[in-house]
Amino acid sequence: MNSLFPSRRDFMNLNRNFFGDSFDNLFSAASSFDVDIKETDTEYTLEADMPGLTKEDIQLDYQDNVLSIGSHREEGKDETDKEGNYIRRERSVRSYKRQFILRDVDESNITAKFDNGVLTVQLPKKEMKQKPGKKIEIQ
């Protein structure tokens, strides 16, 4: 089927041929990051897939029963001719933030590591001492 109007595919091919792969990757980047949370009797374990980032790009905070994970990354590419005039100049900024409610965490013993694009956060639970219940007499 031949049409006078360009299709979305035609525009994407123009984009790929004109701007190159780096510009195409900018628009195909995920809008967030994937997270898995496991709970045992003694702790929560969170794993977040954050490829392409460094540990310096990541902000991690636990406050008021909320674990916050954020990242901020700025990238740029400048190409100039011999006179220093721009031929192409691209910039991108990616920021993500996710929050999770995780109650009864021992804040002083939270640990985190970032290895090969995966952030792993260990959140040990507080030892909950059983309070004796109060017997209520029915009148």
Structure explained in plain terms:
The protein is mainly β and 139 residues long. α1 (8-19) packs across α2 (21-28). The strands form two sheets. It has a four-stranded antiparallel sheet, with no helix packed on it. The protein has helices at residues 8-19, 21-28; strands at 34-39, 43-49, 58-63, 66-80, 86-101, 111-115, 118-124. Helices cover 14% and strands 45% of the residues. Mean pLDDT is 80; it is low at 19-30.
How do you describe this structure in short?
Helices cover 14% and strands 45% of the residues. The chain is mainly beta and 139 residues long.
Give the topology.
Elements: H1 8-19, H2 21-28, E1 34-39, E2 43-49, E3 58-63, E4 66-80, E5 86-101, E6 111-115, E7 118-124
Antiparallel strand pairs: 1-2, 2-7, 3-4, 4-5, 6-7
Helix pairs in contact: 1-2
